[in-house]
Every structure is written in structure tokens, then in C-alpha cells.
């Protein structure tokens, strides 16, 4: 029989050699692998489509309770690629946190009447303010360009000089002694506010070029100042001056003075940990949609809104409320009060609650340093002064409020800060179950 012509695809020509035969087999295997991968991806997409599209989560907590931090943790965990594309945008924030700490110290040294600092009266200043050593005087001159860097970074991040603190013209009021490095940012702008920095804040090529050259200049100044910043921070006079005024910068949010060498390098790229530690005080509610990057994730996205408590009743359509209660500080009574407000709210009757006892590491450190919890919360009485006991005591206190004040019996899920991944896994479970039942899929 004559061979058939005009057949497509043409029949493979018989192998002419063993190596060609092997190459053809390998090519067929590869084609099969690609085809299977496409089938798998399509199947996963079909599966994804069947799933509820979005879980609505409300993060509630007072100022500095850790709302933005947990939001960043969610992003890092569920959408790591998107999180890492924002890395560059965090660099000016981290630099500004650092520069503000330095400028705060310089301001502190120059101030002749420390009582103008609200709440930072020295008990007995060991260095007269007008008797700076030669070394500090030299440092305050060599680090003077950091004022300019602070202005420039603030402009780029907040679009103008940061809000409240800068309204007073006095240099001393520029920084809050308890929040020296903090930057305030209006939400709405939210994360995108400092994305503007990346994109130059304008489509104009000139503006972008100007922004880039300013950015480069700031990084050069920081790099040139690194050694002097470290000398300043290590100077006994500085440490003594801060101690006299009862200011512990290393315990404040956005503290980066222990990482100067790395952070001031011209080619510095923030790590995930740096980003989690960067401090921005959010003004107003913040909303962020997290698109799950893993095909195995059950939900397609989470819409996470972070809020202080007052407006919670306007969010009765959320699936889950995560309430953040930092247990390390003096604001415990406030947290318990806010929790009660949420529990007794009739509009939130069908919303599930997850209680997140936060900042356990700080509590543990304080207890190890000899602080007695019962001295601050007398009802703790003579229970063992151990972090575990304190956590259990507080967790029970929150649970009792929920039982007592909820209009209807409501199961509550409790967590303290374990490994983030474990907590997120648990939270995911609750969110998933609740979102599925809300969409009548269970
Ligand atoms: N040590 C410790 N610090 C934490 C923890 N959670 C949050 N922080 C820090 O606490 C500071 C405040 O956290 P944020 O997430 O900015 O708090 P927030 O609730 O968004 O604060 P506002 O925007 O001011 O309302 C940040 O510097 C965090 O790094 C924690 O579990 N342990
Ligand atoms: Mg915040």
C-alpha cells in the first residue's frame, strides 16, 4: 500500500538512531507532563469557583493592639507573592521609623528645658543639657542632614508632613517620647499611600524622576550616617539621658536602632520581619482584600477591615470578628470594656468572635523582669505570677464577659500568640466554617 499523504499530524518518521528515539520519547514525556499540569490547573480552578468567593473579617482593637500587624501576617501567609511585591514600598517607612528615632535623640540632647516634653520629665538629669560632650556636639552636626531626610520621607509617604504631631511648630512636640519613631497615616490611603512613593505619586515622568533621585539621595545620606548613628546610640550620655527621662526606645514600636548597619546600606531591601515590625499609626478604618495565592485555599479571598471598636455595629454583615486584646500593658481595663460592648451588641448576634490575646511576649518579658501582675490587677490575688497563669486568667475573664453579656449563647474561640502559622490555621478554620454556613453551603 502506498503511504498516505496529506495527513495531519504527519506520522512520526521512523527513528534513525537510538539517540533520536530517546529524544523523541523524552519530548513525548514532557508534552504529557505539560498537558497534565494544565489539566490539574483547570481542575483546581473549577474547584476554586465552587468555593465561597470571599470571607469578610473585621479586626477590632484599640490603638496599637496589633491590627495592622495581624493584617500583614495574613498577607504574608496567604498572599506571599503580593506581599513581597510591596517590599520596596516599606523601605521608606522603615527608614523614617529609624530617622525619627535618631532625630528624637538629637532633639532631646539639644533641649534646654526638658519639661517641655509632655510626660518626659527627667527625674534627675545626669547631663546638664547645655554641657554636651565634644563627641555629641560633633555627632549632632554630622547627623543634621537627617532632618532633611525625615522631611523628604514624610512627604513621600504621607503626601505631606505627617499629621497631628507636626501641627505644632515647636521642635520638642514633633515627637512623642513614648512613640518617637511613629508615623501617622490616614487610612483610605492605607497601604496605597506609600505605594504612591513607588510610583512617584504622579504619572508625570519628571515627578517620578525627581522622586527617584530624592530616594537615592536619602539612601546615600543614610548610608553615610550609619557609623555616626551607631556611635550616637551607643554613647553612654545618650543612654543615660534616655534613662533619666524614663524613655526606653527599644521597647517602642518601629525601633530599628539595633539594625542600623543593615538598614542603612544603600541597597537595603526590607525583610519580612522588618516589614512586620515597621510602625505606622493608622487613622481611620483600613480595608484590604487578600487574594489567596494557593490553589488549595478554600476561600478565594478575604476582605479584612481593621477598625477601632466604636463603629463595630456597622459591620454586622461580617462573617467573623477578630478582637485583639493586647495583654501586656495598662489598657487591659479598656480592652475588657470594649469587649463587653461588642458582646452585648444585638446587631452582632450572629457574628462569630475570635479573641486574640496579643503581645504575650511583652507580658512574659515583664513578668520575667520581676513585675507582679497582681500589683496591677488586684483580683489576680495570690495566683502564681507566671505568664501561663495570667493568660488563662485573662482568657477566662473575656470568656465570662461573653457568656454574661451576649444576648444569645455564642461560642467564642480563644487564642494567645503562639507561632503565627498555628494561629492563622485555627483562624482560617473558624472563618471557613462560618463563611460556608453563612452561604448555606454547610
Ligand atoms: N512584641 C510584640 N509587638 C507586637 C505584637 N503585635 C503587634 N506588635 C507591635 O505593636 C505595634 C502596634 O501594632 P499595629 O499593628 O501597628 O497596631 P494597630 O492596632 O494597627 O495600631 P493603630 O493603627 O495605631 O490603631 C507595632 O509596632 C507592632 O510591631 C506582639 O504580639 N508582640
Ligand atoms: Mg494600624
From TrEMBL:
GTP binds at residues 276-282, 358-361, 419. Residues 1-28 are annotated as: Disordered. The keyword Aminoacyl-tRNA synthetase does not apply. Keywords: GTP-binding, Magnesium, Metal-binding, Nucleotide-binding, Transducer. The keyword Nucleotide-binding applies. This is Guanine nucleotide binding protein, alpha subunit. Mg(2+) binds at residue 282. InterPro entries: Gprotein_alpha_su, GproteinA_insert, P-loop_NTPase. GO terms for molecular function: G protein-coupled receptor binding; G-protein beta/gamma-subunit complex binding; GTP binding; GTPase activity; metal ion binding. GO terms for cellular component: cytoplasm; heterotrimeric G-protein complex. It comes from the Eukaryota. Residues 18-28 have a biased composition (Basic and acidic residues). GO terms for biological process: adenylate cyclase-modulating G protein-coupled receptor signaling pathway. Pfam families: G-alpha (PF00503).
